[in-house]
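[recover] target loaded
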């Protein structure tokens, strides 16, 4: 019938039929439509008179990181200046060679110092020191 009067593309018709099936699933009515083909299903049999389903563009967008209400986002623990100094002293050789330690070295530091830190926190402190030294080195070259 749709080809004769409306001339809708078959993919639009298929999409609407799948949408009807999904609505029935969402409302928990799939068991009521057992034995009925998708083409025989109608929106009237799925939707109540009082039901209005509106969608919003935001329904289809992913949530930004850390915005889930179900899971609290982990708070970053600020590392004290004394701990930062201890890390820079421990990794002084790596810092002067502009090397950033790997996971093994960072875990070795944590085990030796019995620090309550994640290995990547240690790495970030060393990385910041290396970057600072690189900037200072570049400033020194610019003066000539």
């Amino acid at each position: 019938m749709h080809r004769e009067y409306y001339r809708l593309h078959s993919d639009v018709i298929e999409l609407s039929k799948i949408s009807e099936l999904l609505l029935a699933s969402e409302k928990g009515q799939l068991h009521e439509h057992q034995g009925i083909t998708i083409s025989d299903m109608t929106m009237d049999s799925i939707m109540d008179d009082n039901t209005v389903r509106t969608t919003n563009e935001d329904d289809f967008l992913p949530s930004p990181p850390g915005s889930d209400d179900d899971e609290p986002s982990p708070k970053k623990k600020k590392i004290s200046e004394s701990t930062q100094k201890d890390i820079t002293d421990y990794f002084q050789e790596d810092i002067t060679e502009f090397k950033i330690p790997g996971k093994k070295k960072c875990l070795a530091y944590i085990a030796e110092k019995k620090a309550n830190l994640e290995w990547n926190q240690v790495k970030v402190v060393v990385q910041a020191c290396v970057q600072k030294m690189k900037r200072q080195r570049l400033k020194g070259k610019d003066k000539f």
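[recover] notes: The chain has a mean pLDDT of 75.
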